[in-house]
């Protein structure tokens, strides 16, 4: 959030305020971790960061595992003047390598379950999240060869608190979408519901599902997070959901680095406090301020949104279960991210670029 739009001094101010409150842990272990960067003000070469959003349940619930519902690779080429958000389909069928630390022997299944295999093996909440990220990042490394310079985890409630601290976020709805989690009562107030695979959204009597109409407007934190989670009512399903999540990240970057936030100390403190409580961050031993210095030339408008399979569903069925499969061109795209040639690949394959709003 602190990469775009502001001066270096403003960015350093933000990171100085946030660094003391953000939970930092060792999320990248094994082959997935890049070699330690050289200490200093600038990070050499391309940068790959793994961003994961999880649907964590309230403490004390019966749910003992967590899926990584959002998996994004943030790729910055060695020129450090552009950034690419690559969304990984949650239903991608992959082979997950063993992770002896938690007794995981390996498995084949949907990639969003990789996080859960590490998470569910005990320890503190931070240890469980770190183990979950280790299994997921090692899986991606085995398939793509990408080594990550850093990683971050945020849960949905944390995401909501960050947006709330900014006073909402500007979003453009590109397709009318019906919520699977929120309703509207007769007075126009939002009502939280719950989703059933069998019966759809469940709401109190007299409450209708919230419908996000086409057009641009400022959304509250509740509305923005809900919009970014919808997939069932979209014409392109999970690919639409991925696109909207990327658009939300870009919108947050713009809002967080706007003059109205960076020059308002009260709002800035609220934002950094919310971010500190929402994130678990691993910068691979490199001071966060060095990332800020290195990426100071990347503005929010330089975030390019990328879709696998050019946004087309490529489903397969195995033992009665539906999965997503990445085609050869998508694997070539991930190889380009690994080799630092993603910009060239996208010039030759513009169909992989998603709409930014």
Automatic annotation (TrEMBL):
Q: What are the top taxonomic ranks of the organism?
A: Bacteria, Bacillati, Actinomycetota, Actinomycetes, Micromonosporales
Entry coiled-coil feature ranges: none
Cell envelope-related transcriptional attenuator domain spans which residues? 68-257
Q: What is this protein called?
A: LCP family protein required for cell wall assembly
Annotated Gene3D superfamilies: LCP protein
Question: Of which family is this protein a member?
Answer: Belongs to the LytR/CpsA/Psr (LCP) family.
Pfam families named in the record: LytR_cpsA_psr
Q: Which InterPro entries match?
A: LytR/CpsA/Psr_CW_biosynth (IPR050922), LytR_CpsA_psr (IPR004474)
């Amino acid at each position: 959030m602190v990469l775009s739009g502001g001066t270096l001094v403003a960015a350093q101010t933000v990171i100085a305020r946030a660094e003391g409150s953000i939970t930092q842990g060792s999320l990248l272990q094994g082959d997935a971790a890049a070699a330690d960067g050289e200490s200093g003000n600038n990070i050499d070469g391309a940068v790959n960061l793994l961003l994961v959003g999880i649907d964590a349940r309230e403490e004390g619930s019966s749910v003992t595992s967590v899926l990584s519902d959002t998996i994004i690779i943030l790729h910055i080429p060695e020129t450090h003047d552009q950034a690419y958000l690559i969304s990984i389909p949650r239903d991608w069928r992959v082979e997950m390598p063993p992770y002896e630390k938690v007794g995981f022997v390996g498995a084949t299944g949907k990639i969003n379950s990789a996080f859960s295999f590490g998470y569910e093996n005990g320890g503190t909440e931070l240890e469980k999240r770190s183990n979950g990220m280790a299994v997921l990042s090692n899986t991606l490394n085995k398939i793509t060869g990408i080594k990550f310079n850093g990683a971050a985890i945020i849960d949905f409630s944390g995401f909501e608190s960050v947006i709330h601290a900014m006073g909402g976020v500007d979003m453009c709805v590109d397709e009318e979408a019906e919520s699977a989690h929120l309703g509207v009562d007769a007075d126009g107030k939002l009502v939280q519901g719950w989703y059933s695979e069998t019966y759809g959204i469940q709401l109190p009597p007299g409450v209708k599902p919230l419908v996000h109409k086409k057009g641009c407007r400022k959304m509250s934190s509740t509305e923005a997070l809900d919009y970014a989670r919808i997939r069932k009512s979209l014409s392109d399903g999970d690919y639409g959901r991925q696109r909207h999540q990327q658009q939300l990240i870009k919108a947050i970057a713009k809002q967080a680095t706007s003059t109205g936030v960076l020059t308002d100390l009260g709002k800035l403190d609220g934002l950094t406090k919310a971010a500190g409580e929402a994130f678990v961050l691993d910068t691979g031993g490199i001071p966060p301020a060095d990332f800020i210095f290195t990426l100071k030339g990347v503005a929010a408008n330089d975030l390019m949104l990328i879709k696998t399979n050019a946004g087309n569903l490529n489903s397969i069925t195995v033992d009665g279960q539906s999965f997503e499969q990445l085609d050869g061109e998508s694997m070539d795209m991930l190889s380009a991210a690994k080799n630092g040639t993603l910009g060239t690949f996208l010039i030759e394959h513009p169909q992989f670029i998603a709409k930014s709003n």
